[in-house]
Design brief:
By secondary structure, the chain is mainly alpha-helical. It is 62% helix and 0% strand. α1 packs antiparallel against α2. The model has no long low-confidence stretch (mean pLDDT 86).
Length: 106
């Protein structure tokens, strides 16, 4: 369990660092046609939309990591939140924050 806590905290720190590094990527796009052409604006809008989606996914990952750490504190880590069966160790190795077993994931 100590190894799981270490891995979860390390991944959480990594995601937080990435979020911090990319904090300005989803800022509003300037729509001044005198400075930027139409295609450049469209490209900037697309990049902004992709950055917002990436931000949403990283925030979701942080929530999953926090929930996994809470399960670890409650001695429920490694057990499926739906059926209560043990989660396969290889599944936890692939994604330490996974809350459900393979059977419930299907």
């Amino acid at each position: 369990m100590d190894e799981a806590r270490r891995v979860l905290n390390a991944r959480k720190a990594e995601v937080n660092q990435v979020l911090e590094d990319s904090s300005g990527d989803s800022d509003p796009v300037e729509l001044d046609q005198t400075r930027v052409g139409r295609l450049s604006r469209m490209d900037a809008l697309q990049q902004q939309a992709m950055a917002k989606e990436t931000l949403r996914r990283r925030e979701l990952e942080l929530k999953k990591l926090d929930l996994a750490l809470a399960r670890l504190d409650d001695d429920e880590y490694g057990y499926c939140v739906q059926c209560g069966d043990k989660i396969e160790p290889r599944r936890l190795d692939a994604d330490p924050s996974v809350p459900i077993c393979v059977g419930c994931a299907d």
